[in-house]
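One such shown below:
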Amino acid sequence: MQELRISDLSIDVEKKDIKNMHLSVYPPTGRIRISAPKDLNDEAIRLFAIGKISWIKKHQKSFLNQQRESPREYITGESHFFDGKRYLLKVIERNAKHEIKIKNKKYIELYIKPNTSITGKQKVFEEFYRTHLKQVVPEIISTWETKLQVNLNQWIVLKMRTKWGSCNEEKKKIMLNLELAKKPRHCLEYIIVHELIHLHERHHNDNFIALLDKYMPNWKTYKRELNELSIGV
């Protein structure tokens, strides 16, 4: 991976065994990457990037304008997201096991020991989100393995700042962002399908897009919705 700088933009350039150049701008930070053919010279890549500056800045601006979650204090009355819905937090102190419960489809109750730190409360939430994904993801993967005729060896949940998911095609392994536990189920499903399709097609080329169009015709709507939702800090 090499870096290309144009004005105030920093662009990651990765040369691959492909025929055409591909430009991507990733949420939430607006990170830029160009995938280019191995034999293409640097000047051609630079000129390609210059021609796309207005497009790049348009997409970066849209990411910057997204609603962001304010830093969490984990106090009663605070709003938290789970499975695509907004809940009001109730903090209940007790000398027992830390846990989280959903009540009346409106409240998310955090049971913690007195004097638990913000970091401690955050860890309880993260474990709650991780457990949720472990419960719902296997069925989604199983369904789409059959539809796509692929076999996945492993999936894991990670805290990621710049990607919703990623795929290691050689190991047949996908990584999912912990933040997806906060998002609507169809957005989670879209990311899983996106990563599983990489087992057929490594690159975001026309064939990849055609597969997405075939198996999930509304994927562009889901992608747009996902990128417009609040981003965790």
